[in-house]
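Incident log, structure service

09:12 report received: a user says their structure output differs between two submissions of the same chain.
09:20 pulled the input from the user's history:
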Amino acid sequence: AYKCFETTPQEATREYIKKQYKQLGLLHHPDRNGSSLESVAKMQEINAFMDLLEEEFDRKEGVTPTAEEENHDGPSTETPDNQEDISKDERKRRKKARQKAERKRKKAAFKRREEMEKERRKMEEEMRKEWEE
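09:34 re-ran on a clean worker, output below:
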Protein backbone atom coordinates (compact mmCIF):
# COMPACT_ATOMS: atom_id res chain seq x y z
CA ALA A 1 0.00 0.00 0.00
CA TYR A 2 2.84 2.37 0.81
CA LYS A 3 4.43 1.67 -2.56
CA CYS A 4 1.28 2.90 -4.30
CA PHE A 5 1.65 6.23 -2.46
CA GLU A 6 5.41 6.36 -3.09
CA THR A 7 6.49 6.26 0.56
CA THR A 8 7.59 3.88 3.31
CA PRO A 9 5.87 3.03 6.60
CA GLN A 10 8.54 4.95 8.50
CA GLU A 11 8.14 8.14 6.43
CA ALA A 12 4.37 8.07 5.93
CA THR A 13 2.14 10.58 7.66
CA ARG A 14 -1.60 10.90 7.37
CA GLU A 15 -1.19 14.31 5.70
CA TYR A 16 1.32 13.01 3.14
CA ILE A 17 -0.89 10.02 2.27
CA LYS A 18 -3.91 12.32 1.80
CA LYS A 19 -1.88 14.60 -0.46
CA GLN A 20 -0.67 11.66 -2.56
CA TYR A 21 -4.22 10.25 -2.66
CA LYS A 22 -5.53 13.51 -4.13
CA GLN A 23 -2.74 13.66 -6.71
CA LEU A 24 -3.23 10.03 -7.73
CA GLY A 25 -6.98 10.57 -7.85
CA LEU A 26 -6.57 13.47 -10.25
CA LEU A 27 -4.13 11.52 -12.37
CA HIS A 28 -6.07 8.24 -12.60
CA HIS A 29 -9.72 9.30 -12.25
CA PRO A 30 -11.89 7.59 -14.90
CA ASP A 31 -13.62 10.86 -15.81
CA ARG A 32 -10.25 12.27 -16.85
CA ASN A 33 -9.23 9.12 -18.72
CA GLY A 34 -12.27 8.40 -20.86
CA SER A 35 -13.68 5.91 -18.34
CA SER A 36 -11.08 3.34 -19.39
CA LEU A 37 -11.13 0.05 -17.55
CA GLU A 38 -7.51 0.54 -16.53
CA SER A 39 -8.27 3.84 -14.82
CA VAL A 40 -11.33 2.36 -13.08
CA ALA A 41 -9.21 -0.54 -11.82
CA LYS A 42 -6.41 1.80 -10.74
CA MET A 43 -8.83 4.03 -8.82
CA GLN A 44 -10.34 1.00 -7.09
CA GLU A 45 -6.85 -0.08 -6.09
CA ILE A 46 -5.96 3.41 -4.85
CA ASN A 47 -9.20 3.61 -2.84
CA ALA A 48 -8.62 0.17 -1.30
CA PHE A 49 -5.07 1.13 -0.30
CA MET A 50 -6.29 4.44 1.13
CA ASP A 51 -8.89 2.62 3.25
CA LEU A 52 -6.23 0.22 4.46
CA LEU A 53 -3.81 3.00 5.41
CA GLU A 54 -6.53 5.06 7.11
CA GLU A 55 -7.38 2.04 9.27
CA GLU A 56 -3.69 1.56 10.07
CA PHE A 57 -3.30 5.23 11.09
CA ASP A 58 -6.42 4.91 13.26
CA ARG A 59 -4.96 1.85 14.98
CA LYS A 60 -1.65 3.62 15.57
CA GLU A 61 -3.46 6.62 17.04
CA GLY A 62 -5.62 4.41 19.26
CA VAL A 63 -8.88 5.16 17.48
CA THR A 64 -11.07 2.08 17.85
CA PRO A 65 -14.38 2.33 16.02
CA THR A 66 -17.38 0.81 17.73
CA ALA A 67 -19.52 -1.83 16.07
CA GLU A 68 -22.07 0.83 15.15
CA GLU A 69 -19.44 2.93 13.36
CA GLU A 70 -18.02 -0.10 11.57
CA ASN A 71 -21.47 -1.05 10.33
CA HIS A 72 -22.29 2.60 9.53
CA ASP A 73 -25.46 2.43 11.60
CA GLY A 74 -24.88 5.86 13.09
CA PRO A 75 -23.13 7.27 16.11
CA SER A 76 -22.54 5.22 19.22
CA THR A 77 -24.26 6.20 22.43
CA GLU A 78 -21.22 5.01 24.40
CA THR A 79 -18.34 7.47 24.67
CA PRO A 80 -15.88 6.41 27.37
CA ASP A 81 -12.80 8.62 27.51
CA ASN A 82 -10.22 5.96 28.32
CA GLN A 83 -9.70 2.21 28.39
CA GLU A 84 -9.92 1.94 32.21
CA ASP A 85 -13.55 3.03 32.07
CA ILE A 86 -14.46 0.19 29.73
CA SER A 87 -15.39 -3.19 31.15
CA LYS A 88 -13.63 -6.38 30.12
CA ASP A 89 -16.80 -7.55 28.33
CA GLU A 90 -16.99 -4.29 26.40
CA ARG A 91 -13.36 -4.64 25.30
CA LYS A 92 -14.07 -8.17 24.10
CA ARG A 93 -17.17 -6.98 22.24
CA ARG A 94 -15.20 -4.21 20.54
CA LYS A 95 -12.36 -6.57 19.65
CA LYS A 96 -14.83 -8.99 18.06
CA ALA A 97 -16.47 -6.11 16.19
CA ARG A 98 -13.06 -4.96 14.87
CA GLN A 99 -12.20 -8.51 13.83
CA LYS A 100 -15.53 -8.90 12.08
CA ALA A 101 -15.06 -5.58 10.26
CA GLU A 102 -11.53 -6.63 9.26
CA ARG A 103 -12.80 -9.95 7.86
CA LYS A 104 -15.53 -8.09 5.98
CA ARG A 105 -13.00 -5.61 4.56
CA LYS A 106 -10.64 -8.39 3.48
CA LYS A 107 -13.48 -10.31 1.86
CA ALA A 108 -14.57 -7.19 -0.06
CA ALA A 109 -10.98 -6.47 -1.14
CA PHE A 110 -10.58 -10.07 -2.32
CA LYS A 111 -13.83 -9.82 -4.27
CA ARG A 112 -12.68 -6.54 -5.90
CA ARG A 113 -9.37 -8.15 -6.87
CA GLU A 114 -11.20 -11.12 -8.38
CA GLU A 115 -13.46 -8.82 -10.39
CA MET A 116 -10.50 -6.77 -11.59
CA GLU A 117 -8.66 -9.96 -12.61
CA LYS A 118 -11.73 -11.21 -14.53
CA GLU A 119 -11.98 -7.87 -16.31
CA ARG A 120 -8.27 -7.93 -17.13
CA ARG A 121 -8.52 -11.46 -18.56
CA LYS A 122 -11.54 -10.45 -20.60
CA MET A 123 -9.69 -7.44 -22.02
CA GLU A 124 -6.65 -9.58 -22.85
CA GLU A 125 -8.85 -12.10 -24.65
CA GLU A 126 -10.54 -9.33 -26.65
CA MET A 127 -7.17 -7.87 -27.57
CA ARG A 128 -5.91 -11.32 -28.66
CA LYS A 129 -8.97 -11.79 -30.87
CA GLU A 130 -8.48 -8.36 -32.45
CA TRP A 131 -4.81 -9.09 -33.01
CA GLU A 132 -5.57 -12.42 -34.70
CA GLU A 133 -8.07 -10.83 -37.09
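09:41 both user submissions now match this output. Likely a transient worker issue. Closing.
09:42 reviewer note: The chain has four helices and no strands. Residues 88-132 form the longest helix (45 residues).
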